[in-house]
């Protein structure tokens, strides 16, 4: 069984949990507790191979510390960097994150990092409140040679599923020679996930 580790990064409230849970359950669930980091596990079959997939979402507050982000970058096989198209500051955070991933990955391994970083502009349904133009996302992705998607976790299940399966495919093609680090936290049980989903109410967008 191959192991695969994907980190879903981005500033607070951009929809990281929404995207992950949409992929895992097909459902859009609007509210999540965000006080702790989360690890989600799923087994799936890709190109005829069994893969044990781990999706990691750091606590967004802790994400500010560069050393923590460094750990996540060394741990993961692939990165989904999310911003909210209606929040320019989240785009700037995404830019800094992509920058750091490229720097660290290029510094530690000579493998092709382009296919394992996806830049994702979420909340496309809020286009009437848009602060980041589609072309800006495209340009940033072009600059860093990563893949760019714009979508809505709330409205587009197919696109969300496509992104995750593409990432799993791309990351599984990459070299597995990278030394494994300990994962940042333990796996999240379904009970904890459900707790997270229903445990805390937050203002809807
Ligand atoms: N309109 C709209 N709202 C969304 C979308 N995706 C997420 N949201 C909302 O944005 C808010 C934050 O979503 P989360 O999934 O908790 O975001 P997060 O990035 O996990 O946030 P933290 O864990 O707090 O860092 C919630 O109120 C979601 O309902 C989307 O595609 N469209
Ligand atoms: Mg979250």
Automatic annotation (TrEMBL):
It catalyses: GTP + H2O = GDP + phosphate + H(+). PROSITE patterns: RAB, RAS. It comes from the Eukaryota. InterPro entries: P-loop_NTPase, Ras-related_GTPase, Small_GTPase. SUPFAM superfamilies: P-loop containing nucleoside triphosphate hydrolases (SSF52540). Keywords: GTP-binding, Hydrolase, Nucleotide-binding. Its EC number is 3.6.5.2. GO terms for molecular function: G protein activity; GTP binding. Belongs to the small GTPase superfamily. Ras family. This is small monomeric GTPase. It comes from Scomber scombrus (Atlantic mackerel).
């Amino acid at each position: 069984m191959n192991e695969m580790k994907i980190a879903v990064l981005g500033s607070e409230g951009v929809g990281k949990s929404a995207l992950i849970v949409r992929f895992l359950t097909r459902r859009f669930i609007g509210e999540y507790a965000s006080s702790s980091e989360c690890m989600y596990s799923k087994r799936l079959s890709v190109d005829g191979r069994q893969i044990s997939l781990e999706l990691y979402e750091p606590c967004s507050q802790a994400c500010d510390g560069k050393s923590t982000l460094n750990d996540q970058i060394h741990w993961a096989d692939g990165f989904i960097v999310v911003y909210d198209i209606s929040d320019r500051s989240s785009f700037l955070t995404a830019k800094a994150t992509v920058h750091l991933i490229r720097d660290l990955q290029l510094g530690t391994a000579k493998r092709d990092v382009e296919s394992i970083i996806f830049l994702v502009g979420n909340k496309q349904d809020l286009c009437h409140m848009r602060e980041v133009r589609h072309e800006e996302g495209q340009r940033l992705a072009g600059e860093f040679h990563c893949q760019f998607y714009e979508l809505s976790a709330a409205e587009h299940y197919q696109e969300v599923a496509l992104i995750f399966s593409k990432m799993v495919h791309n990351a599984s093609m990459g070299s597995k020679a990278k030394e494994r680090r300990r994962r940042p936290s333990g796996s999240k049980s379904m009970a904890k996930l459900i707790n997270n989903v229903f445990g805390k109410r937050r203002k809807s967008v």
